Amino acid sequence: MPMKSITNVLFTLVFATGILLWPAAGVAADNVEVLKIETLMMEKGSDTVSLTVKVFVKNNGDPADVAVGVVALDGEGFELEKITVNGSIKTGQTKVLVGIIKVPNDVHERIAKWEWKK
């Protein structure tokens, strides 16, 4: 393969990776603030529980699409489950971002709290 083709392929890969990762970066953690996390059990099956996770997020920066990760912790602080919620939030606006997660019954029983994972 000629050197020019290799250079073009490498440039394309680096460019495509940058484009794919750029929207995922969202807003820096300094610009958003999680005010509260609430969960509601929507359905309890024989093996799993379906939970709605509501995250109250305030954007202190520029208007942007934000992605916020929250984790379920047990009583000792170990991470049991995680979910990412996202949405568009204007400057100074507080918005409730909602996600749905299914967790095994035994894991649900061990969840002590939900926390923002910066």
Q: How is this structure best described in words?
A:
The chain is α+β, with helices and mostly antiparallel strands and 118 residues long. Helices cover 25% and strands 53% of the residues. The protein has 2 helices and 6 strands, in the order H-E-E-E-E-E-H-E. Strands 1-2-5 form a 3-stranded antiparallel sheet. The protein has a 3-stranded antiparallel sheet with strand order 4-3-6, covered by helices on one side. The longest helix is centred in the N-terminal third of the chain and has 23 residues. About 14% of the residues have low confidence.
**Number of beta-strand segments:** 6
What CATH calls the topology is Immunoglobulin-like
Helix content: 10-25%
Strand content: over 45%
Give the number of helices. 2
Number of domains: 1
Distance between the termini: 44 Å
- Based on secondary structure, the structural category is alpha+beta
Q: What would the average pLDDT be, to the nearest integer? A: 83
Major sheet: 3 strands, antiparallel
What characteristics describe this protein?
118 residues, alpha+beta, Immunoglobulin-like, 3-stranded antiparallel sheet, 6 strands
